[in-house]
Each structure stands twice: as structure tokens, then as C-alpha cells.
TrEMBL record:
Pfam families given in the database record: MFS_1
Membrane topology: Multi-pass membrane protein
InterPro entries: MFS (IPR011701), MFS_trans_sf (IPR036259), MFS_Transporters (IPR050171)
Organism of this sequence: Micromonospora peucetia
Record keyword Transport present: yes
Gene3D superfamilies: MFS general substrate transporter like domains (1.20.1250.20)
Segments traversing the membrane: 36-60, 66-87, 99-116, 169-185, 191-214, 235-257, 269-290, 297-316, 328-354, 366-385, 391-409
Localization: Cell membrane
UniProt keyword annotations, A-Z: Cell membrane, Membrane, Transmembrane, Transmembrane helix, Transport
Chief localization: membrane
Protein name as annotated: MFS transporter
Length: 424
């Protein structure tokens, strides 16, 4: 299937996803088709098998120090961001399913290196982590570009949300299966790595077989001159703060529950499971429900909801041992709703702002801000938590509200261009 660039779509086309009624077939079709949906599910399942336990692989199988393993993993994620400009240029030449498949294949190489790493070799482990990181950083931009090519308008927003829900379901299922298998010790971890590599390989073959390709040449040269690449500096800077919400259930809440409230680790596990279930079940319905508002308004609302949840966590932790853990678990639902609203509007806003011929570079810059935020947030969260609940949650709330305010007041480049054209 070869598809024209999103900028060539008829803006008056019927938007089947703009209503609160969700049609599964239309959603799958708008997401790239059944084969591509299977590719996403297989890729997510494989990722869930290994990614949460990569640190354990380094420590248990390769006998590396935990600190060295963590540094290698973080370095891999950060250095992998260097590939994003090249990914953006590749996408702007029209590649779509090929880039998605490549992001999966590079992770196959990462898994192969991981399996070939001898005991105690931190450098080869770091190289494997780098290739895994490149695939993990490149995939979101490539996936969003593919979806933006086969669907348009609010239908595209719902398709992006559906992809996220499917991916979270696969990640959760993979992590659950891996947790059960961990009783097998180091042999089980090695087996999980093998299965992960095979899953990535199968997913890459399925994704490539879809054959989605955009035609940047379809955009008239005059329109290209009139539509420069949006800088989106405010949006990208705000996104670095927004994306902290993705690490709250995995890092901030377990840290607070165990070290400050002295609660059972069961609470952290329950919150993580609830977060996954809510994202899987609510991501598409909430995104469709919010489609009656502008994407920028929805993204601003997400910041307000997230900031309110951070203040809720501050109040919950003040209850101390006993009521503190249940209160934190309750507030985590609000935080997850904020995360869902954010995830359903942020990438959609970028795809709506970017002209077709620079969509790849716009998505690559957005993923750079996302990857950077995810990379620095663990260090920032742990540093703030060491200074107490007020420092942690107060700082996150203030920074998120400031980001939401900046998003709300930023003027879209397309709006300025339209006004300039009207004045000619």
C-alpha cells in the first residue's frame, strides 16, 4: 500500500472518529491495517518481555555491578537520541513502514549483542543497550508518521491513541509473562532475550510488509515555501516537563511509598497494574471524547490535571503511615487520567501543526524532547524526593502548571501564516 502524504488529504473528508462511538474496524484501518496492528502487538509483547528486566539481565546473567549496568542503560538511551535528526530526514523523504521496520530490526541487533556479551563485559552490554535505545527512540516518530499518512484529522488522533493502548497491553502482557518466568533464574532471562529478539524480527517483517510510503513531492512547491517547519520551541520545552508523568508510577510513587510511607511494595505493584489497565481501556475513549476541543486546549488541560494530581500526592503523603498509601493509590488514578489526556493530544498536536513535507523532522524533534525528559526524570525525581515530599510534588506541580500555561499561550505558526495570507 502506497499512500500520499497527510498534507494532501481532503480536509472536508468525513471524520469517523470524531464521534464518541468507536468503530473497531475503522480504528484498525486508520492505524495502518490488521497486519500492522499485529506487528505492533508482537513488538510490544517482545519489549515487555525484556525491557523491564534489562537491568536484572546485566546484574544476574552478566554479573555486572548494578551501578555500571544502570549507567550503561541510561547512556544508551541518551546517546540514541543522536539518531533522531537522521530518522526525521529519512521520514521526510517519504519512508514510513520501512523506518518502523528498521527501528525493530536495530533492536534485533541489540538483543543479539546482548546474548553474545560475555560475563563481566560492560562495554558490549552498553553497545547492546545503545542499539536497543536507538530502536526505542526511533519507533515512536516512525509510527506516528505512518499513522499520519494513512489517516487524517481526528481519525488520526484516535488511531494514535489506539496504538498506544495496544502497545501498553502488549507491554503489560509481556512483563507479566516475564515475571512468571523469572523463577527460572538466569536461564529464563536468557530465554526471554531470545524470544524478544524473535518477536522483534517477526514484527519488523510484518511492519515492512504493509508497504506504506508517503509522497512528499505531492505537496506543491509553493505550499512548501509558504509552510516552513514549525519550531515549536515552547511545546518541545513543555513536553520535557509533561513527560515526567510517565515515570511517576514507575519511579516516584514506589520511591515515596517505600522510603517515606514505609508501605508494602504491593501498593506500588497495584498502582502500576491499575495504570496499565486504565491506559489500555480509556486511552481511545478519552481521546475521542476530548476531540470536541482543540488539541492545544486538551494538552493544556492535561497539564492542569497532572499538576492537581501532584498536589494530591503531596496531601496524601502528609497523612503518614496507614492512610497515606491508600490515598496515594487513589490520587494515582487522577494522575493516570492526566497522562491519558496528555498522550492523546501531544503527538496529535505535532502532526496537526507540521506541514507534510517536514512531518518527519517535527516528530523527530518531539521525540527528542520526550526521550530527553524520560532520561533525566529519574535523576530529577530521586534528587527532589531526597529533599522531602514538598520539594518533589511542589516542584513538579509548579513546573507542570508553568508548562501548561506556556502551551496555552503559544501561537501556532500555521495561524500566523493564515493571517499573513489573509492580509495579502
Amino acid at each position: 500500500m502506497s499512500t500520499a502524504a497527510p498534507g494532501t488529504a481532503d480536509p472536508s473528508a468525513t471524520n469517523t472518529m470524531a464521534t464518541t462511538k468507536i468503530q473497531a474496524r475503522a480504528l484498525v484501518r486508520a492505524s495502518g491495517g490488521p497486519r500492522y496492528a499485529v506487528a505492533l502487538a508482537v513488538d510490544a509483547l517482545g519489549t515487555g518481555l525484556l525491557r523491564p528486566f534489562l537491568l536484572l539481565y546485566g546484574v544476574m546473567v552478566l554479573r555486572l555491578p548494578a551501578s555500571a549496568t544502570g549507567i550503561a542503560m541510561t547512556a544508551g538511551m541518551v546517546v540514541a537520541l543522536v539518531c533522531m535528526p537522521a530518522v526525521g530526514r529519512w521520514l521526510d523523504r517519504g519512508a514510513r513502514s520501512t523506518v518502523v521496520a528498521a527501528s525493530m530490526l536495530v533492536r534485533v541487533l541489540g538483543v543479539a549483542l546482548l546474548l553474545a556479551t560475555p560475563t563481566g563485559n560492560v562495554w558490549l552490554f552498553a553497545t547492546a543497550a545503545l542499539f536497543l535505545g536507538i530502536g526505542n527512540q526511533a519507533w515512536p516518530a516512525a509510527h506516528a508518521a505512518l499513522v499520519a499518512t494513512v489517516s487524517h484529522g481526528r481519525e488520526r488522533d484516535a488511531a494514535l491513541a489506539g496504538g498506544r493502548a495496544l502497545r501498553n497491553a502488549g507491554l503489560g502482557a509481556g512483563a507479566l509473562l516475564a515475571t512468571v518466568c523469572l523463577a527460572g533464574g538466569t536461564t529464563a532471562l536468557q530465554a526471554l532475550a531470545v524470544v524478544t529478539g524473535l518477536a522483534y524480527l517477526a514484527a519488523a517483517a510484518l511492519a515492512w510488509s504493509v508497504h506504506v510510503h508517503a509522497h512528499p513531492a505531492a505537496t506543491p512547491a509553493k505550499d512548501r515555501a509558504d509552510e516552513p517547519a514549525p519550531r515549536m520551541r515552547t511545546l518541545l520545552a513543555a513536553n520535557v516537563i509533561y513527560v515526567f508523568c510517565l515515570n511517576v508510577p514507575e519511579i516516584a510513587l514506589p520511591l515515596v511509598l517505600v522510603t517515606q510511607l514505609h508501605a508494602s511494595p504491593v501498593w506500588s505493584a497495584a498502582i502500576f497494574v491499575a495504570n496499565t489497565v486504565l491506559v489500555v481501556t480509556l486511552q481511545v475513549p478519552v481521546t475521542v471524547l476530548m476531540s470536541r476541543f482543540s488539541r492545544r486546549t486538551v494538552l493544556t488541560l492535561a497539564g492542569v490535571v497532572l499538576a492537581a494530581s501532584y498536589l494530591g500526592f503531596l496531601a496524601a503523603t502528609s497523612l503518614g503511615h496507614g492512610w497515606g498509601a491508600p490515598a496515594v493509590a487513589t490520587v494515582s488514578v487522577v494522575c493516570t487520567i492526566g497522562e491519558i489526556i496528555y498522550a492523546g493530544s501531544a503527538t496529535a498536536l505535532v502532526t496537526a501543526l507540521a506541514p507534510a513535507h517536514v512531518l518527519g523532522r517535527a516528530l523527530a524533534r518531539f521525540q527528542f524532547s520526550t526521550g530527553f525528559g524520560l532520561a533525566v526524570s529519574p535523576a530529577v525525581i530521586t534528587a527532589l524526593a531526597s529533599r522531602g515530599s514538598a520539594a518533589l510534588w511542589g516542584s513538579l506541580a509548579a513546573a507542570t502548571l508553568l508548562s501548561a500555561s506556556a502551551v496555552a499561550t503559544e501561537k501556532d505558526q500555521g495561524t500566523r501564516l493564515n493571517r499573513a495570507r489573509a492580509g495579502r
